[in-house]
Design goal:
Helix content is 39%, strand content 25%. The protein is of the alpha/beta class.
Length: 244
């Protein structure tokens, strides 16, 4: 029974993504449609404590990331999410994971996803103490933000084979990629024991479970130090008013 449900979800999502790919002639519009399809899928199936959207990520030092195709962020305690002219800004502290959406898995796109990940991971993240009935929990150490890439196809003859894995392993540190999905070829996840690859028939479901496992292991994001953001605003106002 459960396998039939998984297979149905797999076929439905694959059909949506392929429909966008086949019916939209312009690459920019096709890319936006695919990002929307993926974000809608995330929001439909992820627990409601998470939310997924296209966004820029900002920090209290007034630094900003590249635009991220899908930001999985906290949906309960993210007090500082702003929208301006249809552009969304998410505080770095609220981010659980990030994903780049492309039509095809290539060396260039993999490196591009790594650069996007680096632009997020280099942002500073505050962490405030958390008051509770018995006292105060100390500030939590910010987690390492998992990054991934989502595509329909792969450029390589062996889609997730040796060449892909070599290119994936070359991305280290802040540019590293932890997981991803190639709809027509399989999913991958990077573990301490190596790179695990799913089969084609379960690419979406395998990716979804890999993502849930990682999100579950992160617990809750850090509490935002709102005063740090307020201080950044006050400092900017002081400079604009000619104050020192």
């Amino acid at each position: 029974m459960l396998n039939e449900v998984y297979e149905s979800v797999q076929k439905e999502m694959a059909a949506k993504l392929l429909a966008s790919r086949n019916s939209i002639p312009h690459s920019a519009e096709m890319g936006s449609a695919s990002e929307d399809d993926w974000a809608n899928w995330f929001n439909e199936y992820l627990p409601k404590r998470y939310q997924a959207k296209r966004a820029f990520i900002v920090d209290s030092s007034d630094s900003i990331s590249n635009q991220i195709d899908i930001v999985v962020h906290d949906a309960q305690y993210s007090h500082l999410i702003f929208k301006h002219n249809n552009t969304v800004y998410v505080p770095a502290e609220s981010v659980y994971a990030i994903f780049e959406v492309k039509q095809e898995l290539t060396k260039v796109n993999l490196e591009y996803a790594g650069a996007k990940a680096e632009s997020v991971r280099r942002l500073s993240r505050t962490s405030a103490p958390i008051p509770h009935a018995g006292g105060t929990y100390p500030p939590k150490e910010p987690h390492f933000i998992p990054a991934g890439i989502l595509t329909v196809t792969s450029e390589w003859k062996e889609p997730l084979g040796e060449t892909f894995q070599k290119n994936l392993s070359s991305l280290q540190g802040d540019q590293s990629i932890q997981l991803g999905c190639v709809i027509q070829s399989g999913a991958f996840t990077v573990k301490d024991t190596g790179i695990e690859i799913s089969n084609t028939e379960t690419s979406l479901v395998s990716f979804f479970f890999d993502m849930l496992i990682r999100l579950q292991s992160l617990g809750t994001v850090t509490a935002i130090d709102i005063q740090a953001y307020a201080n950044a605003l006050n400092n900017k106002e002081g400079i604009s008013n000619g104050q020192t």
